[in-house]
Amino acid sequence: MAAQGLPLSVQVALRQANLPPTALGVVVQALDEPEPRLAWQAATPMNPASLTKLVTSMAALETLGPAWQWQTPVWLTEDGGLAVQGSGDPRLGTERLWAGLKRLGVTELRGPLRLDRSAFTPGTAAPGDFDGEPWRVGNAQPEALLLNAKAITYSVRVDGAQARITADPPLDPPQTVPTTTAPCGDWRSALKLQWAAGQRPRFAGSFPAACGEQSWTLADPDPATYPGRLLALMLGEAGIAWRGDNALVIEAAAPAAAPTLFWPGPTLAEALRDINKNSSNLGAQQLLLTLARAAGVPAPSPDTAAAWLQAWLDVHAGNTPPTRVVNGSGLARETRISPAQLAALLRWAWGQPWMPELLASLPVAGLDGTLSRQPGRFGAATGRAHLKTGSLRDVTALAGIVDAPSGRRWVLVAVINHAQAQAGRGVLDALLRWAAQDAPAAKAGS
């Protein structure tokens, strides 16, 4: 396909990236114009990668509203124990756990710790299925009682001839490795992480002293027991002694009685900022399962939640060409939506009362989130475009609203699907800069 319909700067960027024009799908349309200023392969179904999070976000905002809030119910049980029922809260970390336990107003437990994780049905996927790297926090699987993202941060500090490695939360004892005089390069590889499911992580290598202090956050290798281990640890840190023969963690249904209290979670608007600014796959999946449950899907699994989102997308974007949603995060090879469908969704969202919350959740070009690096690359769009990024091995994408210096606002959707897609970031930058100039008429190019 000839590229003459594209702006000259985009044609040049495609040639520099050695990408064919057929790898690109684009829609650029002013919010006050009925037709796109640029539509290139706009009806072609493409893998949007993390642009899928826009679909999840819009569905959540329409269904729940931006002020909807997670609540985790907690009981002090008649046998002197504690029961916690997961609600899908994506932000239940150690600081909030400590504060929540202190709110119980007790100094001692004598019964079991009951965990109810029945709000969601576990999926069949394993953390390493997508890329073979189960130790990556972003590959953790969603669950109803998600505590601290099932992660541990290992801090490495130089102490003379050794480097001391400590875990936060301290679910593992400290470790040491020898230091070296090598320059600070790929220090993570030098540590020689030994990570295997069901076993505690070990570091068998060394650490360049020139690196100073570093940290590395990893998924816990035993995610099934992580909530119980973390809560048991946090009880002690909150000053609550756990004594007696019944000091054990069990999986059990929550009591039928009214909860003792609720641990309040984030509002939807707050959670969306975490999810979209940083492109959190786990957060997006937590949101989708929560959303499906709130919409009436009983104990949703990742598959049934995705089916609910597919139905929502079919209603709001149409199914011509056919779309496909595999999950709420975009961490999938099979997801498909056309640039025109995604642009139509953004134009529809612009007229909704929750549009400010959606915009506020997106990275700002050159300033924060996944667009915070190299602010000069975006030209006049710097600080003026709210855009979700998408990136997989064979996908790079950008979509959102561009507020041009002239005062006009543009919907921009740009997706590259190609084996060398990561070379095409300059193409997306060129499109963004062009849109920020009010999308001047494309000039013919060779």
Give structural notes:
This protein is α+β, with helices and mostly antiparallel strands and 446 residues long. It is built from eleven helices and 19 strands. The chain has helices at 8-16, 52-64, 94-102, 187-191, 226-237, 268-277, 281-294, 302-317, 339-350, 355-361, 425-436; strands at 24-30, 38-40, 69-76, 82-85, 108-109, 113-116, 151-159, 162-168, 175-180, 193-194, 202-203, 207-208, 214-219, 241-242, 249-251, 261-267, 385-392, 395-403, 409-417. It has a five-stranded antiparallel beta sheet, with helices on both faces. Strands 15-6-4-3-16 form a five-stranded mixed beta sheet. It has a five-stranded mixed beta sheet with strand order 12-9-8-7-13. Strand 10 and strand 11 form a beta hairpin. Helix 7 (281-294) crosses helix 8 (302-317). It is globular and about 75 Å long. The relative contact order is 0.21.
Element layout with pairings:
Layout: H1 8-16, E1 24-30, E2 38-40, H2 52-64, E3 69-76, E4 82-85, H3 94-102, E5 108-109, E6 113-116, E7 151-159, E8 162-168, E9 175-180, H4 187-191, E10 193-194, E11 202-203, E12 207-208, E13 214-219, H5 226-237, E14 241-242, E15 249-251, E16 261-267, H6 268-277, H7 281-294, H8 302-317, H9 339-350, H10 355-361, E17 385-392, E18 395-403, E19 409-417, H11 425-436
Helix pairs in contact: 1-11, 2-6, 2-7, 3-5, 6-7, 6-10, 7-8
State the gist of this model.
It contains 11 helices and 19 strands.
